[in-house]
Amino acid sequence: MNQVLEHRSAGAAQQTLLEVKDLGISFGGLKAVQNFNLTLPSAGLYGLIGPNGAGKTTVFNLLTGIYQPQTGSLSLSGKNLLGCKPHEVTAAGIARTFQNIRLFPNLSILDNVRLAGQIRIRPKLLSTFLRTNGYREQEAALKAQAMDLLEIFDLQDRAEDLAQNLSYGHQRRLEIIRALATKPSVLLLDEPAAGLNPQEKLALAQSIRQIRDRFEVAILLIEHDMQLVMDICERIVVLDHGVTICEGTPQTVQNDEKVIAAYLGAIADDA
Amino acid sequence: MSASDVFIEPTSRGVNILKSATPILVGIALAVAIQFLLPSTVGPYYSRLVIDAGIAMILAVSLNIVNGMTGQFSIGHAGFMTIGAYTAGSITFYSSLLIWGTAAKHGSFLGSGEWMFVIACLCGGITASIAGFVVGLPSLRLRGDYLAIVTLGFGEILRVVLQQTGKVVDNAETIRNAPLTTFATVPVGGAIGFDGIPKYTTLFWVYAFLAITVIFAYRLKRSSFGRAMLSVREDEIAAQAMGINTSRQKLLAFITAAFFAGVGGGLLAHESGVIISPKDAGFQRSFDYVIMTVLGGRGSITGVMLAAILLSALPEVLRDFERYRIIIYAALLIFMMLSRPQGLFGIHEIWDFFPKSWKTLPWKKSPREEAQ
Questions:
Q1: Helices B77-100 and B13-64: crossing angle, nearest 10°?
Q2: Where exactly are the structural domains of chain B?
Q3: Are residues A73 and A201 in the same domain?
Q4: Which of A104, A154, A175 to mutate to test the interface with B (most CBs of B within 10 A)?
Q5: pLDDT for B272-330, tens place per residue?
Q6: pTM of the full predicted structure?
Q7: Domain stop point among A150, A181, A212
Q8: How many helices, marked H, and strands, marked E, lie in chain A?
């Protein structure tokens, strides 16, 4: 478990990692996200919730450079990320999963992970053609790193299978592994529990915490499963119609009237 | 024990160098064998067919890098080929005139003339790859049908431009005394084609270049580059999110594919019985290569090679049916696409269909393992 678990900046427990200020974007007349603020400390585990269409995934797309924000600022460990292309954002240390699984279906599981791991290498075309010793070492290291990761998540035996042949739950897991393979400092999970059964959800909650501790990543999580969110998140941001209506600990959020009106109503009735 | 201990084997550097060089050497040895054994066994007619099939394979395998691996739909591949053909052809033609006073073939097997021809082919590849870069640029903003139209347009524009070129100057004295304006018209033959290019193309050179093309394509596919290209094909958004610079990968695919197409064009221009002409840049020929890649399977190198052999042999096999052969050819294509829409081998290579026991020969691990 060598490279993968490499400790990043040890002792930076509550340092601000991701700093988002007044982020906003409109699509024509629709103000999809307005004045979104977030301060994510390193190793933080935050949740982002809200009704369907509230703009949660849009926030992820803004953070990862798929959409360019029209207002606001965005920085990771003090480094400005505004105007960066998606692959530059990933290289800077923000990795994500997708709400509708977006694996590379016709590539093997190993290749899915290995591909994400190659983000920090600069291969040369000529040495690739000649398969020089340097090239072989690079590829062997990539493969070893990917296999280490797969082993941690118990998928090593299926490394050669195509990603599309995995079960739904395993595909969700592979998406997380693939994101981790880019060695991020911030991990964005877009509805990781969608479509999982209760046992799988329980296991997921466990592993999200473990991932945070083991890989020392800060996690921002979009999820509709309130039990999961309230259970594992330290702080929660609630979006409605692109506007942040509440931000605070699970306790605060659960008792906030605006949140109950906009989103949590059903749960409050149950309770 | 961590996984790394299992997967990285202790190998010496010497063994690795040998492993890397062997396929290239074997390919070239095969090319030599074909050169000296084939014509005496099967005669000139079939030798010619084998040369045609070899060039078709170079073109199809290179197009496969763009269409099959990177998933960009290019139908201008014959354009790159023609750029290579004209570049290489004018280099050998005019250099021969100036150096040896005649454009006829000079020297025998591996003689000075042949080396000039090889350098000319490589220059053809380089100019074609520059064109590949230019045509690849729109691919950063366009996808699917729209990109197809741009690449189609490239071939057609090239065809029309080549038709406007000047007459070939086939006399060394005239060239030496010609005013610069003669060269401003680009004397490569205009609409009737570039006649008089020395006929250097032999089985050896076609199959040596084919070996290099195939090994390059295969190693590319199995490398970080190849995975990045495949990821662009599979899901562009996800590829970006995994840190792949998709623009760079697409351009790279266009450039490398165009390079090998240009080399293939150089070989075609020097093939005896062939007069390279502007219509070679047109969509007809481009479509031939697209059909080969589609028929072979997306990204399957061996599949595309088989399709290239089949499609270059088919018209000859059907020659007996005379005027019906185009109909039969088309009907066969339709039948093949209906029965195997994913192409002959789909996303697989030929050895994926071999029984397991074949792959575990004592000196050989599974192909995937070996690729490491």
A1: 110
A2: 15-280
A3: yes
A4: A104
A5: 989 999 999 998 899 999 999 999 988 899 999 999 999 999 888 888 887 887 888 88
A6: 0.89
A7: A181
A8: 11, 10
Q: Are residues A29 and A82 in the same domain?
A: yes
Q: Which domain holds residue A161?
A: 106-181
Distance (Å) from the C-alpha of residue B32 to the closest C-alpha of chain A?
A: 21
Q: What are phi and psi of A36, to 5 degrees?
A: -85, 125
The answer to whether residue A206 sits within a structural domain is yes
Q: Indicate if A123 and A77 belong to the same structural domain.
A: no
Question: Chain A contact for B295, CB < 8 A?
Answer: no
CATH number where A197 lies: 3.40.50.300
Q: What is the pLDDT along chain B (372 residues), one digit of tens a residue?
A: 444 444 445 567 888 888 899 999 999 999 999 999 999 999 999 999 999 999 999 999 999 999 999 999 999 999 999 999 999 999 999 999 999 988 888 888 888 999 999 999 999 999 999 999 999 998 788 878 899 999 999 999 999 999 999 888 888 888 888 888 878 888 898 899 999 999 999 999 999 999 999 999 999 999 999 999 999 999 999 999 999 999 999 999 999 999 999 999 999 999 998 999 999 999 889 999 999 999 998 889 999 999 999 999 988 888 888 788 788 888 888 888 888 888 888 888 888 888 776 655 555 554 445 444
Q: Which residue of A has its CA nearest to B231?
A: A104
Please check whether residue A110 is in contact with residue A160, taking contact to mean a CB–CB distance below 8 angstroms: yes
- Chain B CB within 8 Å of residue A113 CB: no
How many CB atoms sit inside 10 A of residue A138's CB?
20
Residue A111 lies in a domain: yes
Alpha-carbon dihedral of residues B52, B277, B261, B215, nearest 10 degrees? 20
Report the residue of chain B nearest A116, measured CA to CA.
B242
Pull the structure tokens for residue A151.
Answer: 């082993």
Closest residue on chain B to A1 (Cα):
B2
Given A181, A205, A227, the domain boundary residue is: A181
Same domain, A214 and A146: no
Together in a domain, A241 and A258: yes
Interface of A with B in 140-179 (CB under 8 A): 140-144, 147-148, 150-151, 156, 160, 178-179
**Tokens describing residue B87:** 């570049």
> What is the DSSP track for B122-179?
HHHHHHHHHHHHHHHHHHTT--THHHHHHHHHHHHHHHHHHHT-------HHHHHH--
| B237 touches A: beta carbon within 8 Å | yes
